[in-house]
Amino acid sequence: MAGAYPQEIQVAFGGNHVLRKRVHEAIDQNPTQSTLFRDISIYMLHRTSQSPSEPAAKKRKLDDSNGAQNGLVASAGLASAAVNAWRSYPGVSFSIPQRKKYTLELVDDKRHGGIRAVGADGSVEFGIPWKQVEQVFCLPVPEKAKRQHNFVVLPVHGDGVNPVPDHAKNSPPEPIVWTFEEATGKNIVEGEDPGPGPMAEAIHHCLIQAGTAKTVIFPDPEQFESAIPQSHRKGEKGYHVKAHRGSKEGYLFFTSVGIVYGFKKPLAFFDFASINSISYTAVLRNTFNLVITTPTAEIEFGMLDQADYSGINEYVQKHGLQDASLAATRRAKKLNVNPPAEKENGTSGAAAAEEGDGETELQKAERMLQDQEDDEEEDYNPGSEGESDGSGEDSEDEEGNGGDEEGEGGEYEEGYEEGYDEGEGEEMEDHEEQY
Prior knowledge:
- This protein has helices at 7-12, 17-29, 34-46, 56-74, 197-209, 309-318, 327-335, 349-355, 361-379; strands at residues 87-96, 100-107, 114-118, 124-129, 133-140, 148-155, 176-181, 216-217, 240-245, 248-254, 258-262, 268-271, 277-281, 287-293, 298-305.
- It is an alpha+beta fold.
- Residues 238-326 form the Histone chaperone RTT106/FACT complex subunit SPT16-like middle domain.
């Protein structure tokens, strides 16, 4: 009988299972009341984001889930209990948009499919349709004795970096974040993977069914892995870099599709197309700051450990993120504007250019710098001190470069300074490595 009820009723009363049931019973007794309840539901939905008289605490709670609820209104079927879940995971701990345990459901439906959180009373609290998913990440939770992974589902226009379009500013979409804890000891089921793999495969299946061509992104050692040993788990590599955004501590993850900063609000995802350039500031003996420049802002992450500089810089160079002149190319690649033409032998135009005389702007700059250094070497006398070692790095010391810089990222709250050695306020001696 649930299918006979208007979808507006399912959405409007989705947060109160008991009241929704009473409405259904009233319609069953007098079907002519269906139109009245439908009109009431539409009125309620239009007033969802207009409640100025509510207490501040209650209003904040509604605002926290407003963006995710928008996705449900856009896809009313996802909010309906009449649409059955393909996979269900009870007792899942969510942290965004609400910090609470819910049943995680994956709805494998081409029309109304999506991911949703269901409360104890059976009502849908929040969710995102598969077709509105921008990216899905599965990232290890740092510094935990037990292996845990955070799944991060980013909706379109919900990356926390790019401006939200005007039509979504009243209720900007928010990510969904929940924690998966690996089974241990007696909780391990023989023949089953105790890790997050099966859940990630189920999500990937739904994304394919919805025709999104998206996949679940895991950390990749080919992209980045931390040089800092994991004290709580010997021999295991970490994929995060501890960083501060203002006074808030979080973690940076350098993935194959962009840079993620989490896991507290405001969570941010910088895809390659949104990055103009990346630079380094406040370079000290033990720490440095990372500045990501986008078309609309500069976001600075402070107090990154010097041990991870080499790996981060390699990642930045690999994706050409240090070169603002390549930003337009990255955006064109995302939009698939003028993709490289395929040659007869199957190689792309870009690959053929590398084999021939074609060079990228970055390669040309590197070649010109190397040629300049070679010319300087020819001018040296055979026994001259200071002869270049041919490493390709600049050998000039930049005296006075940032001599008085200290912690440009601002003051940090107590408790966030743990894990940082003394001498963070000192400069790097002799600027052995130039940034």
